[in-house]
Design a protein that fits this description.
The protein has 107 residues and is of the alpha+beta class. It contains three helices and five strands; from the N terminus they run ααβαββββ. A five-stranded mixed β-sheet has the order 1-5-4-3-2, covered by helices on one side.
């Protein structure tokens, strides 16, 4: 398995600012985001990541890979606490698709 893919996804989810500056290079030119807030394209996806609050904290609970897909389960805290599940599909060494789902954490 390609651990580079898993590490790239983990770095992205941990909101590493250094990663953001070079992250767009890891997105395929035909990248499609299936999140309603990013309008589906590469530019809006990166812009959304860059706009995250510096106070947002994320804990990646598990990350695994199956073929061209990398899956991540995480918790994050900004104004509220959330549970998230992200799916990234790779084409060669670039992310070509992303899906996610987040919900408030039950107390």
């Amino acid at each position: 398995m390609n651990n580079i893919r898993k590490q790239l996804v983990k770095d992205l989810l941990l909101f590493n600012e250094t990663t953001y500056t070079t992250f767009a290079d890891h997105l395929h030119p035909d990248f499609k985001d299936h999140n309603q807030y990013t309008l589906g394209n590469k530019g809006h996806f990166v812009e959304n990541l860059m706009s995250r609050s510096i106070n947002t904290r994320r804990n990646v609970k598990r990350i695994f890979q199956d073929g061209d897909y990398v899956f991540a389960h995480s918790e994050f805290i900004d104004d509220d606490e959330y549970i998230g599940f992200d799916v990234f599909r790779f084409q060669e060494d670039q992310i070509i698709e992303h899906w996610d789902n987040y919900q408030e954490k039950e107390q």
